[in-house]
Amino acid sequence: MTMPFWLSMLALASGPRFIEARVSIHSPCKPKKIFEVIWKQEDYDQFVPYTKKNRILKDAPTERVVYSQLSLPIVKDRDFTVRIRSENDEQSGLYLVLSEGADKDGPPESPSYVRIRATKASWTLEPTSDGGADVTYVVGSETGGILPQWIQSTAQRDAAKNFVAAILARNGCSPKQ
To answer: Do residues 100 and 136 lie in contact, with contact meaning Cβ atoms separated by under 8 Å?
Structure first.
């Protein structure tokens, strides 16, 4: 399914191998409904492409530490640990979800995976006057290993777009075509 995504790619000043992708889209669903899918990381292996395993290591109402394994085509599987925080302004209906690498809080490195150490992401879910939400997802990471930058950029762009599409489709929140 083709979705009307706006996507941009940047190389960040934090390093030449750190690639950022930004996806923005309008959804007919309220921010809270989208947030509920984003916050159920333990279910990602059921519907998010390439997610092999997601395990919540620490859990609090607005903060989590999550260990993830990705099974990717062509390249060696990847793993990473992130600390995820959520913020919600009940008055405005705005939701934010922020994550950053938390390698020290995860399991030891395994020779079966290439460890992604540098990663950060954010979701911004803003209510709109039509009862829907403007959704912005920004993700940046170093993919680990020795992949050429053009492969990293393409993979990051496609993964970001597919991740947002999977999150929105999970609760029927994809834009109408």
So the answer is: no
As a whole number of angstroms, the distance between CA 31 and CA 80 comes to 27
Residues facing 10 on adjacent strands: 20
Q: What is the pLDDT of residues 18-62, one digit of tens each?
A: 678 889 999 999 999 999 999 999 999 999 998 999 999 999 999
Q: Which of 117-121, 159-163, 167-171 has the highest mean pLDDT?
A: 167-171
CB atoms within 10 A of CB 37: 20
pLDDT of residue 3: 43
Q: Does domain 26-165 have CATH number 3.30.530.20?
A: yes
Residues 38 and 23: their CA atoms lie apart, in Å, by 15
Contacts of 74 (CB under 8 A, 6+ apart): none
Residue 147, helix vs strand vs coil: coil
Beta bridge pairs of residue 110: none
